[in-house]
Design a protein that fits this description.
Layout: E1 2-6, H1 10-19, E2 22-26, H2 29-35, H3 40-51, E3 56-60, H4 66-79, E4 85-89, H5 92-103, E5 107-113, H6 116-124, E6 129-132, H7 134-139, H8 144-158, E7 163-166, H9 172-180, E8 185-188, H10 190-194, H11 200-217
């Protein structure tokens, strides 16, 4: 089970990595727009410094033709490092680029996945991660979790070395359902992951425990004062 954050905000990344069991960072052009760093690759290198080599960094290409996608991927490797997972939209040209990059031994994340057969193409092309768009698929009237379940079964049955990286979340319930449907990883905004802990029952339980302690030992004494 992998928790990945979908942001390029440096302070958000520092805070999330410090508090939560985060194993990676994803980005796309729309995510980048929210922060709009002037030096794109310098910003990506700073993210790498924050998260270290042990966490995955996923950076998306802009090109739409296979040869240009591969060129952009090589630029990413040159400017950041060759451990980056290049996010490639799962289009006709994108799948060709995935095949080329995997033949070179590079890391690939297949993104913009809306359909099961599209996911199967990315799987057969050798993608390391496949990212179905949970909320967007649901908005089209389709079931993203059924897609994940079928894809998960295919990965296991055929022995593929690939993980489902569910993306596009609006709430905690969708994250829970993605894991339950067989996704090995999710990427979500930090706000969605923080919402996991916003259940009023959690804060009430902590308050009740503290009040019981204070009623015995006083409000000025914690465990370190005993």
């Amino acid at each position: 089970m992998e928790f990945i954050i979908d942001t390029v905000d440096l302070e958000e990344i520092r805070d999330a990595v410090d508090h939560l069991p985060i194993v990676g960072v994803t980005s796309n052009p729309s995510i980048v727009k929210k922060t709009s760093p002037k030096d794109f690759f310098g910003h990506m290198r700073e993210i790498r410094k924050i998260i270290g080599d042990e966490r995955s960094l996923h950076i998306q290409v802009i090109a739409t033709e296979a040869d240009e996608i591969v060129k952009e991927a090589h630029k990413i490797f040159e400017e950041v490092d060759d451990k980056v997972y290049v996010k490639v939209p799962t289009t006709y040209e994108g799948v060709k680029a995935m095949k080329i990059l995997k033949a070179e031994g590079k890391n690939v994340t297949a993104t913009a996945v809306y359909d099961l057969m599209q996911a199967y193409m990315a799987l057969a092309a050798g993608a390391d991660y496949i990212a179905p768009y949970t909320n967007r698929i649901g908005n089209l009237g389709n079931d993203p979790f059924e897609l994940m379940a079928h894809l998960s079964n295919r990965i296991v049955e055929d022995g593929y070395d690939c993980k489902i990286l569910a993306a596009s979340f609006k709430g905690v319930q969708q994250v829970r359902d993605a894991f339950n449907a067989g996704s090995q990883a999710i990427t979500a905004p930090v706000s969605v992951l923080k919402a996991i802990f916003e259940n009023p029952s959690i804060s009430k339980a902590v308050t009740d425990f503290n009040n019981d302690w204070y009623s015995v030992y006083g409000e000025d004494k914690g465990l370190c004062d005993m």
